[in-house]
Amino acid sequence: MGDAEIKASSWRLVEVGRVCLIHGGPSDGKLATIVEIIDHKRALIDGPATDTKIAVPRQAISLSQLILTPLILEKLPRAARTGVVKAAWEKAGIEAKWQESAWAKKRNQKERRRALTDFERFKVMRLRKQARFEVRKSLAKVKASA
Questions:
Q1: pTM confidence score
Q2: Strands 18-22 and 66-72, bridge-based pairing
Q3: 59 CB contacts (<8 Å, ≥6 apart)?
Q4: Residue 146 has what pLDDT?
Q5: Quick check: 86 and 35 in contact, CB under 8 A?
């Protein structure tokens, strides 16, 4: 027989230490980590952020309300208390890693766009028109010279 190569999946797994984004409810859009898996539909989460506005209290939540991120708190013990989770959270620099991710940047951009007033949307439209005009002008110049 030949050698069998066993390879782990690269999926985002529901596991202790997995950082997740809460979708829906009062903590919508906040980060938390899975501390304990209660059953096949619920998990115990804790979000010990440094800013109290984005902190998530320790609670049981349905897995359907969680969006798993690629971030993991390594070697977090099961059912770790809030202090342990907070220390691991700060050591891993989760908030900084999240803010650098393309996912977080896109969410922030959507929030900023959603908060624009009518006049600000008009200014954005005018700036985009000006940029498009400049691009087309330079493209026409290149085509004319070729």
A1: 0.78
A2: antiparallel
A3: 44, 45
A4: 82
A5: no
Q: What is the mean pLDDT of the chain?
A: 93
Give burial (CB, 10 Å; 0-12/13-18/19+) of 146: exposed
* C-alpha distance across the termini of the chain, in Å: 64
Asked whether the beta carbons of 62 and 41 are under 8 A apart, the reply is yes
Per-residue confidence (pLDDT) for residue 4, from 0 to 100? 79
| 3-class secondary-structure state, position 102 | helix
Lowest mean pLDDT, pick from 5-9, 125-129, 138-142: 5-9
Cα-Cα-Cα-Cα dihedral sign, residues 47, 69, 67, 15: negative
In eight-state DSSP terms, residue 17 is T
> Coil, helix or strand for 63?
helix
- Give the span between the Cα atoms of 50 and 124, in whole angstroms: 34
> Residue 7: what are its φ and ψ, rounded to 5°?
-125, 130
Gap between the Cα atoms of 30 and 20, Å rounded: 8
Q: Are 44 and 60 in contact (CB under 8 A)?
A: yes
10-19 pLDDT, tens per residue? 677 899 999 9
Residue 1: pLDDT over 70: no
